[in-house]
Design a protein that fits this description.
single chain, 223 residues, mainly beta, five-stranded antiparallel β-sheet, 3 helices, 13 strands, 33% strand, globular
């Protein structure tokens, strides 16, 4: 799974990288947690847009805006068939930009530090995501998203068996386009290459969800 990630770029840098328009401000966040508002890239009526959405998908058909289980991640193996995710996968795909993501060893008793995974030689992961729009009985609209995950590559696999699906820039247009044949979409959902993935052990500072600053990715070897 992916339960925490960071995006440490300003909105103008995100706009330049993805050639997308934006209308809402964004503060850099080294520790994006579930339910947080975060930027995602969608194909709007007038082209690419950056929208701030809640992390944790709320399906449009929900009666009360709640789900019975966590929706921060959708599994690549079942996203096209799931009753919860099938509609967004078909019609509402997005890119979730990230500077990196965190994982913790499954056996916390070992005392292993959190790990910060980043793309080598690049400022951004482009995670494959899906999104939906839910409207409350009072008419309030909430847009929300899930990050699609797949089997971990060999670098992430030393800590966890899952990781976000991340694609290269030349794949983004097809992923977010509503006209891409559904049968072609599964080819986007493989693991990011291990040869392009860096891992850095960081301190337990990131464990606290209220901590959002650069101390989250400070190497334990330098403290």
């Amino acid at each position: 799974m992916c339960g925490r990630y960071g995006l440490i770029k300003k909105i103008e840098e995100i706009q330049k990288r993805y050639r997308a328009q934006y209308s809402e401000a964004w503060e850099t966040n080294y520790n994006i947690c579930p339910t947080t508002l975060a930027p995602v890239i969608v194909e709007g009526e007038k082209g690419r847009e950056i929208r701030l959405m809640k992390w944790g998908l709320i399906p449009s058909w929900s009666e009360d805006g709640k789900t019975k289980f966590s929706t921060i991640n959708a599994r690549a193996e079942t996203v096209a068939k799931s009753g919860l995710y099938r509609g967004p996968f078909k019609k509402h795909r997005c890119i979730v930009p990230a500077s990196g993501f965190y994982e913790w060893a499954k056996d916390k008793k070992k005392g292993d530090p959190p790990m910060w995974f980043t793309p080598k030689g690049d400022d951004f992961f482009s995670f494959c995501g899906i999104w939906d729009s839910w409207k409350s009985p009072e008419g309030k609209e909430i847009e929300s998203f899930s990050i699609i995950t797949t089997d971990a590559n060999t670098v992430v696999g030393k800590i966890h068996d899952r990781m976000p699906c991340a694609i290269t820039d030349n794949m983004i247009a097809a992923w977010i386009s509503p006209t891409t044949p559904e049968g072609d979409l599964q080819s986007f959902l493989g693991p990011y290459p291990a040869s392009k993935t860096s891992a850095l052990p960081v301190s337990a500072y990131v464990n606290k969800v209220a901590n959002k600053g650069p101390e989250c990715i400070a190497s334990i070897n330098s403290t």
